[in-house]
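Is pyridoxal-5'-phosphate placement plausible here? Inputs below.
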Amino acid sequence: MDEHDPRRRIPRTDALLRLPRVAAAAQALSDGVVRTIVRGVQERARAGELAPEDVEAAVITAVEGRRTSSLRPVINATGVIIHTNLGRAPLSPAARTALADAAGYVDVELDMGSGQRSRRGAAARAALLAACPAAEDALIVNNGAAALVLATTAFAAGREVLISRGEFVEIGAGFRLSDLIESTGARLREVGTTNRTRCEDYAAAMGEATGCILKVHPSNFRVSGFTAEATLPELARLAGARAVPLIADLGSGLLSADPALPAEPDLDSALRSGADLVIASGDKLLGGPQAGLLLGRADLIARLSRHPLARAVRADKLALAALEATLNGPEAPVARALHTDPEALRARTEAFAEDLRARLSAQPHPRQGPGPDSAALAVVPHDGRTGGGGGAEVPLPGWALRLPEAAARALRTGEPAVLPRVHDGTCLIDLRCVPDETQPALLTAVAVALTATGAP
Ligand SMILES: *Cc1c(COP(=O)(O)O)cnc(C)c1O
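Reply from A.M.:
I modeled the complex. Tokens:
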């Protein structure tokens, strides 16, 4: 490099790190992250993409704008309650507090009175048993898939799992329960047909090699038309006669029957109907943290707890804290969204639209032309969905605010980020899953998005 090469004027790393604004912002970041940012900017300058004079400013902007976690909160305006891509169930305020409290040292496995070790997660287990009286005992693991792996490993590794051909479920992203079960060394013994499976089909397949009978709730699809399935009481008689566990994977985690989802099975009823063990996720309709719940007969839960794999799939202290608080606290956001009264939602949406029109007409118009035509904002009927949690096909009647489709991208990339529903060339804002306290921020985000897109 000769002495006139502009690259000689690129500030050195230590000089950049000493800049007061860089040093201040760096307090909130690891050394590695700060050095990577600095190196990246210097390299752009060396490549001629940036003038050496602009390096300081670029480093300051990059360091000040860097967050330690890239996960951004998103306002869910889709009307889909258990939105898989948005992390499923949002936690209740009680669960969020418990989560923060559990973030430091906590007595998750210690009796403070005696100073002795205690059973891990005993309080979360007790809360679960109180909410599901038909269960003798419960075990909490990492997620629903882990619960299924643990149960099929413990009861059927090297043996057969009897499962209906109508219940070969793919739960998402190419992830199939059948592959999961076979990965444990259990063999799948398919019974019946896709649309019709009777109790006799299971009976005919039962034999020396049977490890367990598994009934899987098709939580994301529905088989309709010429169909038949064996009921839990029938299967319970069959399984009981051969002393083989009957396991019901319900997926959704509805603790008890809910009139909003009449066809959705619940844990308590499934146990009363004869299932020896039920499996569910904590972050679907139960509305809690990611967790896998196993409830049922005490002897079976004891076998699962003692299995070496139980240690590999155990729930972490944060999940235990949040689950207990979800169960003991007031109605969680998932249940609130599910039980939203359509007329109340309509009134809320009309009021939101009115506030938005007022906001738009008050604001000085940044562009030429007609600009936002506030009269075009209409409140239209819009069905919500439970989403990935179960009751997949059940429409939840409601209302939404209709915006031009162009607003969707501006909303997704705005601050705060908003995910609307894009449907039929329109952008819909459904308030079902938007907490009251978030509504003012949403109003601002929508006004900004509409103004930025010059729409409607
Ligand atoms: C969702 C689901 C699972 C998997 O649970 P995760 O908590 O996602 O691991 C298993 N079985 C059924 C029926 C499900 O619906």
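Short version: The CA atoms of residues 82 and 88 lie 5 Å apart.
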